[in-house]
Design goal:
8 strands, about 190 residues, two-stranded antiparallel sheet, six-stranded mixed β-sheet
Length: about 190
């Protein structure tokens, strides 16, 4: 990650003024692209077109943050290695609870999505939360979606090679120099 001063300056747009919000519902919209993810070291997302719709329900000593993130992220298919736009959608809720207890202030509850903030805190930057929601909601295996006919939309040429291998005729020299153990395995394969 960049140094904290530069990071804070670049992501200033993602700071919510907690003290200035009246009780009730508030809405914010953000656009995410490669410039956003460039602020995070080793980010798995290099390019994207994502929109973040944030609803904040401010109550007494509590902020309920609902993040709705959607858009497309170009990814490489794990099956055929072709780049495709993966459709991204994520809905996450975080509770910011105002704490007057100094031991509890500025902590996280690991079992739930509750973040404790000190009572004198005037704003909160949500950039790290958005980054984590995107990264944690990306699939482990990225493959083309199925088409209307149920067929994979992967590159057909690559799938053919994966399914049938590269058919090459072995020359006489290659056949003579084959280890006998491999020759026995090749007989099993050819059956």
């Amino acid at each position: 990650m960049r140094n904290s001063t530069e990071f804070n300056h670049l992501l200033q747009a993602y700071t919510i003024p907690l003290k200035g919000l009246k009780q009730g519902m508030h809405e914010f919209d953000y656009q995410l692209n490669e410039a956003f993810f460039a602020n995070f070291e080793n980010a798995p997302v290099q390019q994207c077109q994502l929109t973040v719709h944030l609803q904040i329900d401010k109550r007494v000593n509590l902020f309920i943050l609902q993040f709705d993130i959607e858009g497309a992220i170009p990814v490489s298919c794990d099956r055929c290695t072709e780049i495709f736009d993966w459709s991204f959608e994520s809905n996450n809720i975080v509770l910011l609870k105002v704490s007057y207890n100094k031991d509890e202030a500025e902590e996280e509850d690991s079992d739930t999505d509750i973040l404790y903030i000190s009572a004198d805190r005037s704003n909160y930057n949500i950039a790290q939360l958005i980054y984590e929601f995107v990264v944690l909601n990306m699939p482990i295996q990225k493959v083309h979606p199925l088409g209307e006919n149920g067929q994979a939309l992967c590159n057909a040429k690559v799938l053919d090679i994966l399914n049938h291998g590269i058919e090459e005729e072995a020359t006489d020299d290659e056949t003579e120099n084959i280890d006998p153990r491999w020759a026995a395995l090749r007989k099993l394969k050819d059956k």
